[in-house]
Backbone:
């Protein structure tokens, strides 16, 4: 990701450039989460056959979404009353939805793999 959590906490949100940076941060966060969700969907919908390796890939993808979500929540909390709040709130809501879907698909894959 181009912008880190600490870098996002350094901007005030008052300058046009700050809003552009926040847009970029939010866009990158959503895009990376979407890519990781697509990886899980690909496995779930038989883009590849489920085995231990694919289950590990799905777990890594889900962990990545959780990590991104936690980072965006951290930035959102920091800017909760500022000018960047609407952008960050939107990103949090969209990533949370992707995370919920990823969790459900992963649980299903895990159940399929571990069933006897």
Residues:
């Amino acid at each position: 990701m181009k912008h880190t959590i600490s870098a996002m906490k350094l901007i005030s949100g008052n300058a046009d450039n700050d809003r552009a940076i926040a847009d970029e941060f939010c866009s990158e966060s959503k895009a990376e989460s979407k890519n990781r969700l697509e990886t899980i969907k690909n496995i779930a919908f038989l883009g590849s056959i489920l085995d231990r390796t694919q289950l590990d890939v799905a777990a890594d993808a889900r962990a990545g979404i959780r990590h991104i979500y936690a980072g965006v929540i951290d930035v959102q909390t920091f800017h909760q009353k500022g000018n960047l709040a609407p952008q960050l709130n939107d990103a949090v809501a969209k990533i949370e939805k992707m995370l919920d879907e990823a969790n459900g698909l992963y649980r299903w894959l895990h159940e399929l793999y571990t069933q006897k």
